[in-house]
From TrEMBL:
Residues 1-24 are annotated as: Disordered. It is found in: Cytoplasmic vesicle, COPII-coated vesicle membrane; Endoplasmic reticulum membrane. GO terms for cellular component: COPII vesicle coat; endoplasmic reticulum exit site; endoplasmic reticulum membrane. This is Protein transport protein SEC23. It comes from the Eukaryota. CDD domains: Sec23_C. It comes from Aegilops tauschii subsp. strangulata. InterPro entries: ADF-H/Gelsolin-like_dom_sf (IPR029006), Beta-sandwich_Sec23_24 (IPR012990), Gelsolin-like_dom (IPR007123), Gelsolin-like_dom_sf (IPR036180), Sec23 (IPR037364), Sec23/24_helical_dom (IPR006900), Sec23/24_helical_dom_sf (IPR036175), Sec23/24_trunk_dom (IPR006896). Belongs to the SEC23/SEC24 family. SEC23 subfamily.
Length: 790
């Protein structure tokens, strides 16, 4: 099973091609599928004990349809749900919890249970089941989903027209019963009262100062009495006052948030009349834009009208905030927007204050159960780095593009509202809980969630990400949402004694959430893995290593460390970790690099680390803080398969003499008579070799005798479209030719096996890369030399 010494140079790219569903029926992937029993052995494994889980991956993947009854729970403090790993005594009608070993009696309605008649949650294939949670009889029907659009009008006419076009498509795609609201902002914030259809009625808020939630509600007439210094809202005709107070909050819903069926015409008229912000902009200045106040007003409105209900604030931003809370740059154009260098040197005067503002907004939205989605379309930065907290803590979606007319924005925006097979399955108001065997502790979670601060015996001393809790709030989640949970091994005295050792460990993930159709559901996933004695049995550890998951977990871990630790050197940390891992699990004679080989389960790992070191997650040079924040948010929330594509793009070759096939991510893969398709997740590149480009420019593909050439040109386009259709955010499509200016999108990702230093060895027709970076071959030679050192 061991690889040859050279095989870690370039493992076969087709080996990286994933099977049908690498996440399995439970949508759970472990870095190690066998766990060492002691803390010391766990630290010697180098790669953390972690699990990536997609809590609400598409229900079609479940073995059983949703169960129409509530789940059975173990007695507190355990409270784990009944699952296939429970031991059942059918005669005594008792089940024993595999996590805490408590004995529980089945309730009377399980009286018919027997070996031939078991409920679905005990079937071995039902390790993941979903329960429908019915409210008490007579409880109100669930409220429809709420979409509050916040639109930036400090943009040029052409951009605003693109926004209007996308908004009209979105409103047409929304379900009839969904509630919609509209806030527009520039120098001031305008909240549109959609329920007042006789004429356009707008509440205006000054953009220059921070306003509290109470002041917002007073101005909208949604709070109790008037406040000193504020005009008392006049009573609307025909609405009864209650005890001298303002009309009940329900009227607030009817005034500002209306079902699509009732306000489609009003919205259409409002969009027609919408104009770019009229406030004059002095020469040499930026537009005055009060993003912070606009989001504050939106959050305040939702908090008053629909607290605890699935609601999304969808913000469409066309530039940086320059006024009021959340400012990221001054109005003066001579001051550039902060760069990574400024942040490193503490030379970004607005950064900490803006982060603090968005931290407060995040806390407010999480307590209300609402989501912030941001669609940023601008050539300059808009402040995603500051907003990252609020977007990630609420589980919001984020899309970064250059213009509202770009397909990245238009297609991604439309995708949110689409149903059918491309639906994102947007769910709301989730909570995510973890229960596990006694000897395991939870360090924390990296991903789109917020700690609910539920401390207990299962919390580890060391914290990774959102830690010191076993429950998290997920205001927004969808089919692709993935969380990474970090664990620690903490054996108790008793479990170390022979005879008391349980060979299996159990972890249960319980997610309760509001399904897109409105009803509440509980999904329970229970998984089991083997304990192994790592000091004597490395074979089982090696057999259970998942190199893709390990690469992604390390990428998420170092992204977090780069954000919270000032002097953290990610490249050095990765190199040391890789050397330790190869030293521990490689096969070699001491001090003989040529004898080094790796098991096939590790063979791709050096390649992943090589590409991770060069990726946008580690090398922030040439990226703005907004782009880095954007890349990291997506890395932290996507599935393992998608995240691997971000770290190590895939490359497919199309040519006359062979069917489409994966090739090495290497400059040597370029040839004049080939078309290459690169999937780098955020962009998809179709790269034509020189000869192919010349033939295309001569229009050979239009001649009947060159049908085969026409098909060759079409094949990568079709493949690219398949990738684009299945992905959110929609990737940027780049079509380029060898030696063209846009070829850089491909060259930047390739292994520089041929550089300007070795140009004399390059076969004619292939390419070289102008770089001093080391190639993968040199990287591996160093790795082998250091791993075998005694």
């Amino acid at each position: 099973d061991s690889c040859s010494p050279r095989s870690i140079m370039a493992a076969d790219p087709s080996a990286a091609a994933a099977p049908a569903d690498p996440d399995g029926p439970d949508a759970v992937r472990f870095t190690w599928n066998a766990w060492p029993r002691s803390k010391v052995e766990a630290s010697r494994c180098v790669v953390p004990l972690a699990v990536a889980i997609s809590p609400v991956r598409s229900p079609e993947s479940l073995a059983s349809p949703p169960l129409p009854y509530p789940p059975l729970r173990c007695k507190p403090p355990c409270s784990a749900l009944l699952n296939p790993f429970a031991r059942v005594d059918f005669a005594a009608k008792i089940w024993i919890c595999p996590l805490c070993f408590s004995r529980n009696h089945f309730p009377p309605h399980y009286a018919g249970i027997s070996e031939n008649n078991v409920p679905a949650e005990l079937f071995t294939q039902c390790s993941t089941v979903e329960y429908l949670v019915a409210g008490p009889p007579g409880s109100p029907a669930p409220l429809p989903p709420v979409f509050l659009f916040v639109i930036d009008t400090c943009v040029i006419e052409e951009e605003l027209e693109y926004v209007k076009l996308s908004m009209r498509k979105a409103v047409a795609l929304l379900p009839e019963h969904a509630l919609v609201g509209l806030v527009t902002f520039g120098t001031q914030v305008h909240l549109h009262e959609l329920g007042f259809s006789e004429l356009s009625k707008i509440y205006v808020f000054r953009g220059s100062k921070e306003i509290s939630k109470e002041q917002i509600l007073d101005q909208l007439g949604l709070s109790g009495g008037g406040r000193p210094g504020f005009p008392k809202m006049t009573q609307q005709p025909g609405v009864q006052q209650v005890n001298g107070m303002h009309p009940l909050v329900t009227t607030g819903v009817n005034r500002f948030l209306l079902p699509v069926s009732e306000c489609e015409c009003t919205l259409s008229t409002l969009l027609d009349e919408l104009q770019p912000d009229q406030w004059p902009v002095e020469a040499g200045n930026r537009a005055i834009r009060c993003t912070g106040v606009a989001l504050n007003v939106a959050a305040g409105l939702l908090g008053a009208c629909v607290p605890g209900t699935g609601a999304r604030i969808i913000a469409l931003l066309g530039g940086p905030c320059t006024e009021g809370p959340g400012v990221i740059v001054s109005k003066d154009l001579s001051e550039p927007v902060r760069s990574h260098k400024d942040l490193d040197k503490d030379a970004a005067p607005h950064f900490q204050k803006a982060v603090k503002f968005y931290d407060g907004l995040a806390k407010q939205l999480v307590s209300q159960g609402h989501v912030l989605d941001v669609f940023a379309s601008a050539l300059d930065q808009v402040g995603l780095a500051e907003m990252k907290l609020a977007i990630e803590r609420t589980g919001g979606l984020v899309v970064l593009s250059e213009s509202f007319g770009h397909s990245v924005f238009k297609d991604s925006f439309k995708r949110i509202f689409e149903g059918g097979e491309h639906s994102l399955g947007l769910s709301f108001n989730g909570t995510f809980e973890i229960n596990c065997s006694k000897d395991i502790k939870v360090q924390g979670v990296i991903g789109p969630c917020t700690s609910l601060e539920k401390k207990g015996a299962l919390c580890a001393d060391t914290i990774v990400g959102q830690g010191n809790t076993t429950a998290w709030k997920m205001c927004g989640l969808d089919r692709n949402t993935s969380l990474t949970v970090f664990f620690d091994v903490s054996p108790s005295e008793r479990s170390g004694q022979p005879g008391h050792q349980n060979p299996d460990l159990y972890i249960q993930f319980v997610t309760s959430y509001q399904h897109p159709e409105g009803q509440m559901r509980i999904r329970a996933t229970t998984v089991s893995r083997k304990w192994v004695d790592g000091s004597t049995n490395t074979e089982e550890l090696v057999e259970g290593f998942d190199q893709e998951t390990a690469a992604v977990v390390l990428a998420r871990y170092i992204s977090l460390k780069m954000e919270i630790e000032e002097e953290f050197d990610a490249t050095r940390w990765l190199d040391r970790s890789l050397i330790r891992l190869c030293s521990r699990f490689g096969d070699y004679r001491k001090d003989d690099p040529s004898s080094f080989s790796l098991h096939s389960n590790f063979s791709l790992f050096p390649q992943f680390m090589f590409n991770l070191r060069r990726s946008q997650f580690v090398q922030v040079f040439n990226n703005s803080p907004d782009e880095t924040a954007y890349f990291r948010m997506l890395l932290n929330r996507e599935s393992i398969t998608n995240s691997v594509a971000m770290i190590q793009p895939s490359l497919i070759s199309f040519s006359f003499d062979s069917p489409p096939s994966p090739v090495f991510l290497d400059v040597a893969s370029i040839a004049v008579d080939r078309i290459l398709l690169l999937d780098a997740y955020f962009s998809v590149v179709i790269f034509h070799g020189m000869t192919i480009a010349q033939w295309r420019n001569m229009c050979y593909q239009n001649q009947p005798e060159h049908q085969q050439f026409a098909q060759l040109l079409q094949a990568p386009q079709e493949e690219a479209q398949v990738i684009i259709n299945g992905r959110f955010p929609v990737p940027r499509l780049v079509v380029c030719d060898q030696h063209g200016s846009q070829a850089r999108f491909l060259l930047a990702k390739l292994n520089p096996s041929a550089t300007y230093n070795s140009a004399h060895d390059v076969p004619p027709g292939s390419d070289i890369i102008f770089t001093d970076d080391v190639s993968f071959q040199v990287f591996c030679e160093h790795l082998q030399r250091l791993a075998v050192q005694s």
